[in-house]
Amino acid sequence: MTPVAIGQPSTSPTSPQPSLILSLKWLSSPATARHGVIAGEIGAALAVTATLFNPALVQYKWIAVALIVGAAIASRSAWSA
Q: Alpha-carbon distance 3 to 55, whole Å?
């Protein structure tokens, strides 16, 4: 298995770039901001899914660490608000 280089263009059929670009465009107007948020969420979910199912990804250790740290920060932030 050949690892994928950082910055290499995505060859995934579920490439999230169009939805992320549209989300930025739609966020520029208050009338379409809700559509922009939804498109951004869908694009981010597709990007994460494509990354996790990438056959070149052989170690999930750092993804698990980032998930735990992010969850800890988010839960602390949610409880203090």
A: 9
Q: Write the DSSP symbol of residue 10.
A: P
Instruction: Give dist(CA 51, CA 55) in Å, integer.
Output: 9
Q: Where are the domains of the chain?
A: 17-80
Burial of 50 (0-12, 13-18, 19+ CB in 10 A): middle
pTM over 0.90: no
- Tell whether the model's pLDDT for residue 13 goes beyond 60: no
- The percent of residues in the chain predicted with pLDDT above 90, rounded, is 19
Query: DSSP state, 3?
Result: P
Question: Tokens 């981010």 sit at which residue?
Answer: 44
